[in-house]
TrEMBL record:
The keyword Methyltransferase applies. Keywords: Methyltransferase, Transferase. Residues 75-123 form the Methyltransferase type domain. The keyword Phosphoprotein does not apply. This is SAM-dependent methyltransferase. GO terms for biological process: methylation. InterPro entries: Methyltransf_11, SAM-dependent_MTases_sf. Coiled coil: none annotated. GO terms for molecular function: methyltransferase activity.
């Protein structure tokens, strides 16, 4: 990985610059942040995989953790080994993080540990729907391996790139009911409260954190409003992302 003289990862710098110059993506992420926070109960919030800490523009009091340092990140730590006491957070939020984690089940146990009873883990992740799967397979830089077993034990790789990913992991864990039941059996302190499908049009047209965009900022809000009116059975085939809510029991 190429780093700048201050020691920051070059990809972080690029992402932050896109964030600052691209109003459409800021509006989209503000809507994502709103959904994350609305699904959390009262109490302190932990933001995992905070990246460039843009979530703090929506809620400055969150505690942001990332494996890489960056201005605004409060704690540099591995999500599999969180440096917090048990039961201290009312909510744990994540945006495009789970599919980057090397050992997702180990992480889910750790997230459950730091949550209070009744606390919630809320994540927004790529969804391998009928439409989105084609896009992610052919046009996205991160791989999709639907044959991977997210429940399998994995040896720790100390040299692993934090940006390594398998975009299929969230769908393999939460898209279908049998997998959700297996998650609950494997991590008995968590219950899957809801899985919903969204990011139909505005997000793919925005280009995400790429420099290009096919949607002007003025159309982001009305497009998001239109997406809410799309029936659930269609969203399940068209969505590019899923929002998953798990609760500590």
């Amino acid at each position: 990985m190429t780093s700048n003289p201050a020691g920051l990862n070059q990809r972080q710098i690029v992402h932050r610059k896109v964030w600052e110059t691209k109003r459409a993506i800021r509006l989209l992420y503000q809507d994502y942040h709103r959904q994350l926070f609305e699904n959390c109960p009262e109490g302190a919030i932990l933001d995992i995989g905070g990246g460039t800490a843009h979530i703090k523009q929506t809620r400055p009091d969150v505690v942001s953790v990332d494996i890489l340092r960056f201005p605004g990140i409060d704690v540099v730590a591995d999500a599999h080994r969180l440096p917090f006491r048990s039961g201290v957070f009312g909510g744990v939020v994540m945006l495009d993080v789970l599919h980057h984690l090397e050992r997702p089940i180990e992480f889910l146990n750790e997230a459950a540990r730091v949550l209070k009873p009744g606390g919630r883990l809320v994540m927004i992740e790529p969804a391998m729907t009928t439409l989105a799967r084609r896009f992610y397979d052919h046009f996205h830089e991160e791989p999709v391996d639907m044959k991977a077993d997210p429940f399998a034990p994995v040896s720790i790789d100390p040299n692993r790139d934090p940006f390594d990913a398998n975009q299929a992991i969230p769908s393999l864990l939460f898209a279908k009911e049998p997998a959700r039941r297996r998650v609950e059996q494997t991590v008995p302190s968590l219950r899957v409260r809801s899985v919903d499908w969204h990011s139909l049009f505005a997000y793919p047209m925005s280009g995400g954190l790429q420099r290009w965009s096919l949607i002007p900022a003025a159309l982001v809000s009305p497009t998001l409003q239109f997406e809410k009116m799309v029936p659930a059975f269609l969203r399940k085939h068209l969505a590019f992302r899923m929002i998953v809510v798990l609760e500590r029991v």
